[in-house]
Amino acid sequence: MARVLPTVASQLIVFLLISSFSTILVSGEEQGFARALDRKLLGLKKEKLSHFRFFFHDILSGKNPTAVQVVPPSNYSSSTLFGLVTMFDDPLTLGPKLSSKMVGKAQGFYASASQQDVAFLMVMNFAFTEGKYNGSTLTVIGRNNGGTSRVREMPVVGGSRLFRFARGYAEATTHSLDLKTGDAIIEYNVYVFHY
Predict the structure, then answer these.
(1) What is the set of domains in the chain, with CATH numbers?
(2) 117-122: long-range contacts at Cβ-Cβ below 8 A with a sequence spacing of 24 or more?
(3) Most confident among 4-8, 72-76, 125-129 (mean pLDDT)
């Protein structure tokens, strides 16, 4: 009988330990998959508003185009080129001349998304290569109604590195457009809240 008592006591201790671990695990599950964080833990300081101005060079012609058609329009006689998809890796410069100082690249695609008017779905990253913003990106996803508006506004939906948690909007204004080649220079003014 003396040997049974230590075995029962050992089993009881093991049972209590397992129970306490399972309670810890279950209570951890009850928190769910999301939790509130203090922004200081991520190194986030005071939020600021910044304005960026640069020129986007969409070059479809020549030996080294920066934009290429990857999907043809559904109907070439359509005035809106509905269905056309173009990928681009366009230079971003401080001035409207391509020889101006380059500050980054615009990388993404635009797709003709309207059957009634000239309007594109724009999906792009502004990947900066200059100064403290080198390696940081801003992401724009939205409608570019280039056929009906002089100034087009698209949302900035996020970013990376210095632009984590970024939000804002980008205004696009056509500086020049060559109707023969399709080459365009677009001025962008981007207003962004970021940390």
Answers:
(1) 48-194 (2.40.480.10)
(2) 117/80, 117/145, 117/147, 117/148, 118/79, 118/80, 118/81, 118/145, 118/146, 118/147, 118/148, 119/80, 119/143, 119/144, 119/145, 119/146, 119/147, 119/148, 120/144, 120/146, 122/154
(3) 125-129
